[in-house]
Amino acid sequence: MAKQARADRLIALLGPVHEAAQVTARRLCRSHADGDDLFQETVLRALDQIGTLRDEARFRGWFYAVMVSVHRARHRRRFWRRLLSLDELTFEPARPADTETWEGAERMAQALATLSLAAREAIVLFELEGFTLEELAAIQNDSIPAVKSRLSRARRRLRDFYEKLDVRAPISLGKERRHGNG
Amino acid sequence: MEMDDRIAIDLRAYGRATDRAPRPLDGIAASLRAAAAVGPLTRLRRPLAVGALTLAVLLVAPVPYTRQRGFDFTVAADGTVLRSPHLERVWGPVYAMAREKLFHIELPLKDQTSEELEREIRQQLVAEGYTVDNVKVWRFAGLGAGIHCDILPPTTRVTIDAHRGTEPLHLATDIDVGPGPARLLVRDGEVVSAPRPNPFEEQEMLIDRLKACGVKGDVTVDAKGGVRIHLRP
Q1: Checking DSSP bridges between strand B227-232 and strand B131-140, what pairing results, if any?
Q2: In this complex, which of B5, B18, B36 lies closest to A4 when CB atoms are compared?
Q3: Where are the alpha helices (DSSP H) in chain A?
Q4: Which of B6, B15, B35 lies closest to A169 in CB terms?
Q5: Could you report the per-residue pLDDT of A7-26, keeping only the tens digit for each?
Q6: What is B134-178 written as a DSSP string?
Q7: Residue B159 sits in the same domain as residue B87
Q8: What are phi and psi of B40, to 5 degrees?
């Protein structure tokens, strides 16, 4: 059956990338639940569009491009969520972390939330997922200079956020952990 | 640079904190096979069906609205006729309310001169019972058309025969049947001083005359000689 064959093809291709893709989805979103929803929706979209994938060697980039497209569509749909203040951002560490790691992660989650959608994607995909500029340009469907410029602006924005917090490295964080998670 | 170092450290911390054990591939595969069995159309159909059902409920569910059913006419002692719309509050579906509120004109814009369009608009308005004073159409090449209409309130001619003693009086008036209150003068001023017949005779006479004019209506004459005519459509 054609649909089942498409599903089997996608499952086989997802094997090597699904774990990293799920993590990326969580990093792109403001909560893990949103990230899991994004991944699930991306997989369903990929199932519908898998027929357009010609070169299976390029599956990873193709799948992330689908994820970025779904991410933006979800963002447009959830208009009101864009108006959430940073105070309402709930950062849930995924695994046990020490106080410094947890606070640094929470601070970065807040800093990323101040970026535009495309800038957040650029930082996450380039800095955390290790995509090259060429791959990032293909995923974001932009030119390499445009992506370079976006990354530069995003870094400046992060720096501004940190300067306002007046947080410099190395620092000693004496705050109590607010959410227990190991 | 200290700040850049801090950012790099926090980015790595964010990466570690979000890197939890993801959902196993088996679970994803089961979801995918189920989705493939259902198909994209069915996935799409559910929200569409919910939307269509909501729309249908909105269209069919009764809503309160006011509609006009005829007019109330009051003939005052000084010979003037006061007309007010006879309104009633009803409940009905949205599409019925829309039909009450809308007036539709269809215009074939293509290959029509401005004069032909003006004529067409005038004809359709007149056919709907409107009195059209002025219709002006401007055509703009490639940009469509501008239309200006001066529509007078539609009128209905009501003729009532009365008697002053044995002398017959002919009372004719154009009654404004457009929306909103209006005060209309009876054309034959002589009726003002005419002695009125008794209320029962006047009521019967008016009903007969209304019937003769092809107008359905209820006539009420009170003890003080006030006449109230309710025209039904």
Answers
A1: unpaired
A2: B36
A3: 2-14, 18-28, 32-49, 59-77, 99-113, 117-123, 133-139, 144-165
A4: B6
A5: 888 888 888 888 888 888 88
A6: EEEEEEETTTEEEEEEEEEPPEEEEEEEEEETTEEEEEEEEEE-S
A7: yes
A8: -65, -35
Chain A environment of B11 (Cβ under 8 Å): 108, 123, 127-128
A1-83 fold: Rna Polymerase Sigma Factor; Chain: A (1.10.1740)
pLDDT(A179) > 50: no
Give start-end residues of each CATH 1.10.10.10 domain in chain A: 95-174
**Chain B residue with minimal CA distance to A126?**
B11
Dihedral, CA of residue B19, residue B25, residue B27 and residue B32, to nearest 10? 120
- The whole-number average pLDDT for the span B44-48 is 65
Phi and psi at residue B86, to the nearest 5°:
-90, 105
- Between A108-122, B22-36, B37-51, the lowest mean confidence (pLDDT) is in B37-51
Cα–Cα distance measured from residue B31 to residue B28, given in angstroms and rounded to the nearest whole number: 5
pLDDT score recorded for residue A64: 92
Answer yes or no: are the C-beta atoms of B139 and B163 closer than 8 Å.
Answer: no
Cβ–Cβ of A18/B25 closer than 8 Å?
A: yes
Q: Is B219 in contact with B209 (CB distance < 8 Å)?
A: no
